[in-house]
Amino acid sequence: MKLANGFYTALGTPIDDKGDLVADSLALHIEQQITEGAAGLLLMGTMGAGANLKNATFKEAVYTAVKANKKRIPLFVGAMDTSIVKVMEKINLIKGCDIDGIVLTVPFYDPVTEQEAINFYTRVADISPYPIYMYDHAIITSFKITLPMMDKLISHPNIKGMKTPDWQLIKGIERFYPDSDFECLYSGLDTFDYGRMMGIAKSLDGMFSCCPKNGKKIVDANEKGDYKAARKYLDNILKLRDTMLECDIMPSFTYCMNLLGCDGYFHYDVCSPLREEVKPILKNLMEEIGEI
Questions:
Q1: 262 part of a folded domain
Q2: Any idea what the Cα angle at residue 148 is, between residues 126 and 87, rounded to 5°?
Q3: 92 located within any domain
Q4: Is the confidence at residue 1, as pLDDT, over 90?
Q5: Which of 3, 135, 153, 289 is most buried when burial is the number of CB atoms within 10 A of its CB?
Q6: Structural domain total, the chain
Q7: Structural domain boundaries enclosing 162
């Protein structure tokens, strides 16, 4: 499957105080993204708290997303976990669902070696009914996917791509594997503008969840070659992201998604409630950047 250029959204996952899915909210979230021109969706990535959800919620979220998406754009599902058997347990929960791929970090509890990472991806890819997309997320896993690893992974018929913040890795893959149909999705939010000018035209991030209007404006400006305007809209997203970090990012994410009309909690259950005094700051900023 050839992926279109544009912005890909790592969706949030709305849950209630029992950890159950707020299905109508997820469906609305997906509709908002498609309306604003998202090129694809990642369900239950890092921003979507995929590793923190109950298996029942994981399963319901996939079924809900498939129904809401209606095959309009590619839909990928994060099934990150701590072992091959636990990943496959998740995949088997959704077997038969019409999704476009499974996104996986390396196991993230025990440190893995390079050979163990290769073993992990190849063994899952051997038995998964869905294509596998690697997730290069060294902050969470303490493991960095490298270009030399690709010699043993890129030729696997069921390993189709990767999400990575490493633009040098993407350009290295382009250089050393020019005939491969391996897809790279760039997740270096702070340098999306430079990535686009270097020809990296598929960007994936969770901030598009609460900034779909700015995501669309970035893509539209880039298509016109107006990189200055694209940078302006990226700066809007970065300003919101940085403010969310200052205010406690995941509860801030919940508040911003609620402002967009998507009910439920989008943060982890260990998070503290958002402080009341920061809510006007976030609301004013969402208005300033044109998201509400």
A1: no
A2: 30
A3: yes
A4: no
A5: 135
A6: 1
A7: 6-211
Q: What is the pLDDT of residues 78-94, one digit of tens each?
A: 999 999 999 999 999 99
**Mean pLDDT within 64-84:** 97
- As a three-state string, the secondary structure of the chain is CCCCCEEEEECCCCECCCCCECHHHHHHHHHHHHHCCCCEEEECCCCCCHHHCCHHHHHHHHHHHHHHHCCCCCEEEECCCCCHHHHHHHHHHCCCCCCCEEEECCCCCCCCCHHHHHHHHHHHHHHCCCCEEEECCHHHHCCCCCCHHHHHCCCCCCEEEEEECCHHHHHHHHHHCCCCCCEEEECCHHHHHHHHHCCCCEEEEHHHHCCHHHHHHHHHHHHCCCHHHHHHHHHHHHHHHHHHHHHCHHHHHHHHHHHCCCCCECCCCCCCCCCHHHHHHHHHHHHHCCCC
What is the percent of the chain where pLDDT is above 70? 100
For residue 88, give the CATH number of its domain: 3.20.20.70
**Model pTM greater than 0.85?**
yes
